[in-house]
Amino acid sequence: MLELVHFQILSAAIFSIGIFGVLVRRSAVMVLISIELMLNAVNVNLVGLAAFVDRPADERVFGQILVVFIITIAAAEIGLALAIVLRVFRNRGSANVDDLNLMKW
Amino acid sequence: MNVNFALLSPEYVLVGVAFVVLTVDFLLPREHRIHLSWLAAGGLLASAVVALVYRWDTFETLYDGLFIADDFGLFFFVFLTILTAVVVLISHDYVRQHVSQPGEFYALLVFAAVGMVGMAQAGELLTAYVSLELLSFSLYVLVAYRRDDALGNEAGVKYIILGAFSSAILLYGISMVWGATGTTYYGGIAEHLAANEGDLDPTLILGLALILAGLGFKVAAAPFHMWAPDAYQGAPTPVTAFLAVASKAAAFALILRLFTQGLMPALEEWQVLVAVLAAATMIIGNLVAIVQSNIKRLLAYSSVGQVGFLLVGIAALGEVDGGVVIPNGLASEAVILHLVGYAFANLAAFTTVIAVDNHIGTDELSGYRGLAQRSPFLALVMTVALFSLAGLPFFVGFLTKFYLFTAATEAGLLWLAGLAMAASVVSLYYYLMIIKRMFIDDVDESDLLPLRINVPGLSWVLLAALLIGTVGLGVYPQPLADAVGAASGAILPGA
Question: Among B106, B256, B340, B418, which has the minimal tally of Cβ within 10 Å of its Cβ?
Fold first, then answer.
């Protein structure tokens, strides 16, 4: 039977995979996809809480409202980030985050 | 639900100004578009006046408590819109030389102001988050504004990736706090924390730690400060000033309200964490600043150090006496005062950097050799700004640091106050190195540029105003202290 804890474990796992991807991936696009994974881990957590947490239904529905906000903001954020990455790719011919090393320290 | 929409009119004015600026940009002939800065700055100041008229001495909540109109919110509304107006005006010369669409540049600054005032007045985590993102989105675009410049590109990518990363962490924290408490209202969180004292759900603690880390990223507290120097260096200099002053003030307004109205009952859990964060931020910011050779990067690390001082004030927001949390009103006053003093000094420093950059075309520290010969006035303003940032007497920085360290001592954080004083001494070292370059070193002989720097009239007026503010508030701080006292009293009742 599906319970709250399953959602929490799934969400923590996806979030960790996202952090891992941000840290090890070289391509800026893959880094952005990893960030998207992290944001969706938050959504999984909220949907799980909204369905299973031990509270009256009118309080729980707020979790779903949060999810709608997060999906919208994440979409806008990734759109903006891709535009900037595209600009870097045009100017340098590479979207590799390791190449962004003009500034150190 | 009864909503008094008149209370929201200052925000309507702000949003209206942003759209008017965008629209007028299309209607004006290209050569006149530069004058949109007057429209944007005038609109920002007008919204501050509207706020003073409609919000004077109110204490009301809107939209079922999502939005709180009180003296604290009013103070930050006026403070942040004035800061944005100053940034709009100091970017005038930069925009004339480098920006082809002034309307969108100024409109983004005004949209950022809308986000900032939302952050200061949100009474609930989701509202605070959406406001924070409105500010961040505007900043992502502004930081990456130099589209064909390699440094600008690099700054933009690093800023948006780390910004989105920190948003994800913040949201994960918010989801956990909501799951554990069933509410995202600051007041509701405080009630939950007070009712379950000593027996807090581990997910709630983890959620609060994640929120703290996410906000730490946004204000560039060490160890989450890596994006700040790169973003500061690559961004257009007026945007750097905006990042360093206004966005930081707004983030601290959010943090102050969240910590006083929401997290105060759990002081024991977070006080040590914030104190350690403050200590690390002061040490790293001030030590790494010493080795910098670029003025924008140096000021970036210096502002990381200043965030450390502000976090000292956050850590000192209360003390635990026999299991009871006693709020420390002096600390929240000190944080707000320091934000104001820091804003004056830092804006003066950045305005000087812009004037020098427009003339000699470099941000490297070597360009500041013999600045006193090039322009005694610029050298004077820079010196006063740096002395104030270091916290020397007679300047506003001394007064605000004095408040901060007193508050830390009163909250029983003696070690932190001692460390902060040591960090101030270190900061004085690298500030004095700049001053030495300006006054003792001579201008490079191979330098073929005209010796004298002509400061444009508008910059001259702004620099003089900031100079008078930095010195004047240090000598006669009473009016400011009264206003800050009222603002702080609104979020820390009974302290």
Answer: B418
Whether B147 is in a domain gets the answer yes
Looking at residue B446, its pLDDT comes to: 64
Q: Nearest chain B Cα to A84, which residue?
A: B157
Run of H or E including B171: helix B150-181
The model's pLDDT over A11-28, given as tens digits with 9 standing for 90+, comes to 999 999 999 999 998 888
B102 is a domain residue: yes
Tell me the nearest-neighbour CA distance from A1 into chain B, angstroms.
Answer: 20
The DSSP code for B413 is -
Residue from A80, A92, A104 whose CB has the most chain B CBs within 10 Å, to mutate:
A80
Q: Closest CB to A100: pick one of B144, B158, B203.
A: B158
What's the CATH class of domain A4-94? mainly alpha
Q: In terms of DSSP bridges, do strands B60-62 and B324-327 run parallel, antiparallel, or are they unpaired?
A: unpaired
How many A-B residue pairs are in contact by the CB < 8 A criterion? 116
In terms of residue numbers, what domain contains B340? 7-491
Q: Which residues are registered as beta bridge partners of B68?
A: B61
- From CA B397, how far away is CA B410, in angstroms rounded? 20
Chain A residues closer than 8 Å to B288 by CB: 105
Closest in B130, B157, B168 to A42, CB measured: B168
On whether residue B478 sits in a domain, the answer given is yes
Dihedral angle at the C-alpha atoms of B476, B479, B485, B491, nearest 10 degrees? -130
Do B120 and B72 form a contact (C-beta atoms < 8 A)?
Answer: yes
For the entire predicted model, the pTM comes to 0.93
End-to-end Cα, chain B, rounded Å: 31
Say which amino acid occupies B417.
A
CB–CB of B164 and A32 under 8 A? yes
Q: For B439-475, what is each residue's pLDDT tens digit?
A: 888 777 666 667 777 788 888 899 999 999 998 888 8
One-letter identity of residue B301: Y
Is-contact B261 B186, C-beta < 8 A? yes
What is the total count of domains within chain B?
1
Selected residue of B178, B233, B297 to mutate for chain A interface (largest A Cβ count, 10 A): B178
CB contact under 8 A, B182 and A35: no
Could you say which of B153, B176, B179 has the minimum Cβ distance to residue A88? B153
For residue B92, the Cα-to-chain-centroid distance in whole angstroms is 21
Residue with tokens 């400061």: B455
* Domain contains B1: no
Q: Is B493 helix (H, G, I), strand (E, B) or coil?
A: coil
Return the closest-CA partner of residue B245 out of B219, B226, B277, B280.
B219
Chain-centroid distance, C-alpha B28: 33
For residue B223, is the peptide bond before it cis, meaning its omega torsion is within 30 degrees of 0? yes
